Amino acid sequence: MFPTVSHFLQYLFGINLPLPFNTFGVFVALAFIAGYWAFTKELKRKEALGVLHPFKKTVIVGQPATTSDLILNGLFGFIIGYKLVYAMVNYSLFVSDAQSILMSLKGNIIGGLFFAGLFSYWDYKEKEKNKLSKLKNVEVTVHPYQLMSNLIVWAAVWGFLGAKFFDNLEYWDDFIQHPIERLLSFSGLTFYGGLICGGAAVLIIAKRNGIKPLHMLDVGGPGMMLAYAVGRIGCHLAGDGDWGIVNNNPKPFSWLPDWLWSYKYPNNVVGEGIPIPGCSGKFCAELAQGVYPTPIYEVIICLILFAFLWKIRDKIKAPGLMFGIYMILNGIERFCIELIRVNSKYHVFGLSFTQAEMISTLLVVGGIVLSAYALRNKNKLA
Question: Does the keyword Transmembrane helix apply (predicted)?
Fold first, then answer.
């Protein structure tokens, strides 16, 4: 497998190019790009249909750089320079363990001060170019799709926090034993935690800018399905532990590739399993027995579901119905995958279930309720 981008490049082209990028992180970024594209397309489409409307916003033109502007830009520049220069000076360490540098207090003071001054100076000069002796209030038109840059940043921040929070709840015993390591780790992210918290942040910001929650939810349905599929590619390629239970059953079809039926995830990023003979370095473990490669199953299923949602979006008129359908499809997909996936289980009143099974069940029920509500009140909600 490909725990880092360097492993992927070496496999494809036979070149050894040390890069400080892990495969999972790259695909998380690609997932946000895919979601950004789908969200933007839907916002533009709904505006063209008259469902969403541009709004007016008053901005002040001609302001000079304030002290707080210079301080904030300087602080941001210091953080960038503090880490960037240290990473460049210690590039080998950065390539082998980027997380230990990014999530630690290690850094370069001189680099931080240089970039702090550079960022503050740049902000000062830019504001000086447009400074006016008399400030102007200018009314500008903002289209819904132009909110996406702001929405995607808040979705990323709150989505990450939510994914970490739900993951630590799911693996509570391990969190109690290693709280600092789990909090500072980039691995260990729960999709539903990110969906709930990131989605809530998007809805709040959209509502503040005049977009009704049901319309925003409908915009997000197809995009979230696509983003999830892209993110799961990273899970599979990196081997991040989101695999299935042991599968020693014979292949049902001879033409089916072995890795699509039962896979040992060699060189997995979490280092789980037994040593690989002849392998040296950081990622040299593979599972003792082949397991269901559930991430790739989810990639295939969710791409099909995205195509379905994208196809029917023009036919859906009732606000909230698209997201209701998304909730039902997403819940069913994840519940079925959980049946063959390794996961921590809760035991309540004699019942055994995973966190994802519980949330996916609630999603299906909630999706049915939302769809019924949308269809019954489509004229009132439009």
Answer: yes
Quick one: which of 230, 224, 245 has its CA closest to 330? Answer: 224
Residues forming a β-bridge with 58:
139
Taking the C-alpha atoms of residue 133 and residue 323, their distance in angstroms, rounded to an integer, is 50
For residue 363, count other CB atoms closer than 10 A to its CB. Answer: 23
Rounded distance between C-alpha atoms, residue 74 and residue 113, angstroms: 8
Do 22 and 238 contact (CB within 8 A), yes or no?
Answer: yes
**Single-letter amino acid, residue 314:** D
Contact 217, 203 (CB under 8 A): yes
Q: Is 212 exposed, middle or buried (0-12, 13-18, 19+ CB in 10 A)?
A: middle
Q: What is the pTM (predicted TM-score) of this model?
A: 0.85
DSSP assignments along 191-241, one per residue: HHHHHHHHHHHHHHHHHHTT--HHHHHHHHHHHHHHHHHHHHHHHHHHT-S
pLDDT exceeding 90 applies to what percent of the chain?
Answer: 58
Per-residue pLDDT for 234 more than 80?
Answer: yes
How does pLDDT run across 304-328, given as a tens digit for each residue?
Answer: 999 999 999 999 999 999 999 999 9
Triad 188, 324, 47: Cα angle to 5°: 100
Contacts of 62 (CB under 8 A, 6+ apart): 130, 131, 132, 133, 134, 135, 136
What pLDDT shows up at residue 192? Answer: 65
How far, in Å, CA of 173 to CA of 11, rounded?
38
Q: Is 264 exposed, middle or buried (0-12, 13-18, 19+ CB in 10 A)?
A: buried
How far lies 368's CA from each of 322, 338, 363, in Å? 11, 21, 8
Q: 362 CB contacts (<8 Å, ≥6 apart)?
A: 331
Residue position matching structure tokens 């023009």 = 314
- Amino acid letter, 206: A
E strand or H helix that includes residue 345: strand 345-348
Residue 371 burial (10 A CB sphere; 0-12, 13-18, 19+) = buried
Structure tokens at 15: 């070149």
Identity of residue 53:
H
